[in-house]
Amino acid sequence: TSEVPNESSLVPPIVVLKEHETSYYRRSDVEIKNRICGEIQYAAKQAQLAFKIADMAFDETISTRNFLIEATSSI
């Protein structure tokens, strides 16, 4: 019988490192996490901008001229 791996079996084992190595790896992990979070925040802001422009495109109270000004200044 084969076992289906559970989530905890997919986590790599904890490795005990020397003090200077531990701080290096922790800093690296934090940098990776911050980079990923930054990319997600950027994608979310771009999505919000796209929805704002789409809403303005279908808003009959906004003239084509004002729409173009708003859209190009947002980008």
From TrEMBL:
Protein name (record): Uncharacterized protein
Domain of life: Eukaryota
